[in-house]
């Protein structure tokens, strides 16, 4: 049985400015918020532009703000997002340059991820009860940018390295047993690196992949704090 | 041995935590002292003069002044840095806050010494 | 300073198109709605912190009355006993408790010690702060 | 390596795995390339695929041509795409007697197609994959792998961009520019600016997947593409480290692909007319749970995190074979054969074989211009997908 859902979608075109368009959609509650958007594009308005690819939270391209909170619409079921007759307010991710409608430019984000250089495939542990073995797996971080959109510090400080890149740095340390290049360290152990975080934990709240960027930033902070204190004591002794 | 890179921002966070922890103690002492060291609290001018003239109180209050000013202005600096200022603006902010901090502490010390002189 | 300045620049990802840079959104420092407990903690710390800075300098300014001797001080004491000032004292206490306890929480999680406990810690902070505030308010108004 | 010198230009329609690989190959062979994609990169068939880097095992009994393509390309992608593949191998598992009857055919097929394989006892299989059905009778290990579809495309496109290609997402082809029986470019609708304009080139390559038929129609050509969707169910949690295949002839729900923090059950097969938005048949989804749980019983007790479907662009005449029987190999059509110059369609195939599809296509293109430039994509290590955004 289908539900009647109202989508209020924030539109933007470089020449026309911003507006909000309303669409009525008939869709099964088991389908996703992204399916609804694709349905609008397919049947109602071909001018709507939005990003999507894998539809299972792997590519990280479809991130949006739905009813005020960052989500990956490809794994947000309609029934978990609203009720029959309900409304979904859809906006592009915050804190990213907007290209058009729901499309943001991920270039500034990937520049930082490239700087940190975390390989997207890394070692992973065996399943419980399994013999230890060499496994690789894609990193949990799908580079979707939800964490940056949710962060109240990224909202005002465009120089802040941001949760995803800092979490990636911590992951690199974890995998490579503490080695970061000087260039990466200079960006991470920096006024606008890990010390800028004010522990609002929004990144971890919205992360669709259990990366827990805030927890990783705190781990980095502990590492760098105790390293400093050790050096201070060492210098005096 | 470790390689060198430009480290920035760590000490301001660490000292902010340390000064914050100190303040939890100092704020408590500041409030308790005023109400209980001098019986019935600081009600009269003479009470105040007697209060600051106590060497322990004087030391405690000056320490409190220094730590609270440091913590407050470092906090303001952090809030301003959250705005994504340019490096030149950041240097300016730091300089101005250092001057404000020194003036504040100077004023507090001067006021205390003045009052001790009145006693 | 808090302008939502937006300007267009060339996109690297979408050739031939200009993107709209996101403006700075200071309002989000003060908007914990729909957000998690961590953000409530962040907002609390920021609001209380800025309030306390303001109070610090007001307090120091008021103390300059002492240089005017007996009369200045008596005038101040009369003012300080008014209900309005007692209410301000309660607000001050709320700020100190909120910022102090939450600061302790931030120090504990920020040093990576109790990261997983940030939510229960926030609830503990809130409960202790409210209890402290009630006790303090009773003390102020009964004195 | 010097870039071959000629001044030909090419337009590639579609930035799925095929179009991306074609763009990459074209730039290596000296073409000035523009890629036009109506949506985001990989927003069509490629993005929503199963993420399986085929060993060829699935096809080694009934469709050996596809199987050989798969294993060859599998080995090449391992070398040229180091950062978008999970290479934990795969198991074909036998649960029933019928599966055991299929096993000798399968082993024979692996031999015939040169697919490396290793027979495992039930105990060995359970040791490797503790969540397997304890009823498992035997298993065969093959070099299956897992890729990340969007990043695979981005790797090809990043490398193409580094060689001068212009990639235009959200640029939809509305018509082909024709001059006397020759395609000279495309008329596009820029969906970002909401403007229409023409782009000219010496050759246009139609890599639009299930939409290739509609593009070919713009030149009055019929391309037999059958949009054949399949349902995939992504489950909460990762329950296997290797790809788990049912050791039997292909059927619905015969595979569970682990990827990131999920295990994806797939797939089914039916035919549709319009590939833009596909209704998901409820019975297909139920079948995925049932059949997936036959191999990994744990899947019965976990919830789905996403259900998705997309149309495969299989080649074949409509109404003939059922979707499952259609070959998974690819075909490159030089439409000069139908009297239209400057226009080539590539369709069918799989993401695993996208590089080979590109090689064949660009061979055809080069031949049209009398160019003899060898393909070098087998040995060209691709840039990181992140370079797509930073170049």
Walk me through the structure.
The complex is a heterotetramer of chains A (237), B (119), C (143) and D (391). Chain A has helices at 33-43, 78-81, 107-116, 146-150, 163-176, 182-188, 202-206, 213-236, and strands spanning 3-13, 17-27, 64-66, 69-71, 87-91, 98-100, 103-104, 121-124, 135-138. Chain A has 237 residues and is an alpha+beta fold. Chain A has a 5-stranded mixed sheet. In chain A, strands 6-7 form a two-stranded antiparallel sheet. In chain A, helix 5 crosses helix 8. The model of chain A has no long low-confidence stretch (mean pLDDT 92). Chain C has a single domain, classed as Fumarate reductase/succinate dehydrogenase, transmembrane subunit (3 helical TM bundles of succinate and fumarate reductases, Up-down Bundle), CATH 1.20.1300. In chain C, helix 1 packs across helix 3 (83-110). In chain C, 64% of the residues lie in helices and 4% in strands. Chain C has 143 residues and is mainly α. Chain D has 2 domains: 1-51 and 148-224 and 316-391, FAD/NAD(P)-binding domain, CATH 3.50.50.60; 89-146 and 226-314, D-Amino Acid Oxidase, subunit A, domain 2 (D-Amino Acid Oxidase, Chain A, domain 2), CATH 3.30.9. Chain D has 9 helices and 20 strands. An 8-stranded mixed sheet of chain D has the order 6-7-5-15-16-17-14-18. Chain D has a 6-stranded mixed sheet with strand order 9-2-1-13-20-19. Chains in contact: A-B, A-C, A-D, B-C, C-D. The interface between A and D is large, with 57 and 57 residues.
Number of helices of chain D: 9
H-E order of chain D: EHEEHEEHEHEEHEEEEEHEEEEHEEEHH
Q: How is the quaternary structure best described?
A: heterotetramer
The strands making up the biggest β-sheet of chain D line up spatially as 6-7-5-15-16-17-14-18
CATH class of the largest domain in chain D: Alpha Beta
Q: Strand tally of chain D, please?
A: 20
Q: Kindly estimate the percentage of residues of chain A that lie in beta strands according to DSSP.
A: 15-25%
Which CATH architecture of the largest domain in chain D is right? Answer: 3-Layer(bba) Sandwich
Query: Tell me about the biggest sheet of chain D?
Result: 8 strands, mixed
From the alpha-carbon coordinates, what is the Rg of chain D to the nearest angstrom? Answer: 21 Å
Strand residues, percent of chain D: 25-35%
Strand arrangement in the largest pleated sheet of chain A: 2-1-5-3-4
Q: Roughly what is the average pLDDT of chain D, rounded to an integer?
A: 94
Main sheet characteristics of chain A = 5 strands, mixed
Shape of chain A: elongated
Instruction: Give helix and strand order of chain A, one letter per element, not per position.
Output: EEHEEHEEEHEEHHHHH
Biggest interface pair, residues each?
A-D, 57 and 57 residues
